[in-house]
Known about the structure:
Blueprint: E1 3-7, H1 12-23, E2 27-32, E3 40-43, E4 48-49, E5 59-62, H2 74-97, E6 104-110, E7 122-123, H3 133-145, E8 154-160, E9 162-164, H4 169-179, E10 195-197, H5 198-210, E11 216-220, H6 228-238, H7 250-257, H8 262-265, E12 269-270, H9 273-277, H10 287-295
Parallel strand pairs: 1-2, 1-5, 2-3, 5-6, 6-8, 7-12, 8-11, 9-10
Antiparallel strand pairs: 3-4
Helix pairs in contact: 1-5, 2-3, 6-10
Amino acid sequence: MKTILISGATGLIGKALVKKLQSKGYEVRILSRSKQENSLYWDIDKGIIDESAFENLDAIIHLAGAPISKRWTNSYKKELYDSRVKSCDLLFQYASKLNSKLSTFITASGANYYGTKNSSKIYKESDEHEPDFLGQMCYDLEKSAQEFEKLGTRVCALRTSAVLSYQGGMLKELKPMVKASVLSPLGSGNQILPWIHLDDIVNMYCYLLENPSLEGPFNAVASEITTNKEFAQKLMRAHGKSILLPKAPAFILKLALGEMSEILLKGSALSNEKIKKAGFQFEFSNLEKALADLNS
């Protein structure tokens, strides 16, 4: 039985992944910033991790990260960065110090690796990162993760798109707007909204964990390329509703949300050919099917 250490285990993906791994017979250890039962304590700012987390450890899955959906003040940008990159650095420091013989390190990166912009290009894993805030943060996170290769550890990164689940993330925030029939496209509505069903990304983590020949970055995105307008229409239709209001003006979103509004108003398509060629099979490549499953 393999032992997996997970950071960010209380998040949307983390909760579902812990449950899945345990059902498959893995021993799962959870890192927590609060001292509680059934978890191991760490403090990123103080550079502390309970060393017992690394005893006879086989793999680490690094999901920790403050949510990007809050307004980006300078202090919150630092929190976004440190919660991902500084925490990854800390994991490597302890793994190196304790001479951990890890087989695998997998980190959650982001679809914004390629930049928060509108583009007709379909981005592949071989494309360069964009040096805007999110693109640089994702690049630095993946570079930090690559340090584990010095320990003889296989490293993977999942460049994650919007994860669909009513248990958290975007859909949880949108559901009240859908029920009230006030959901509408944002800005032009033509920006691409890359997405993935929660089940598929959880299965993708398991697939990477269980296939030791796979390494490097992988785009975690469904096959269907969807605009923001199409997403809003299909989400409303899935609830038996139609869009009643005009598009939400970009300038209103910018006033309300500041720089963070860019992730709502801009977006580009990603290719998932690399993971599919590696043998991974998506359960939900079609948005209508994904929403129907989530509504069932």
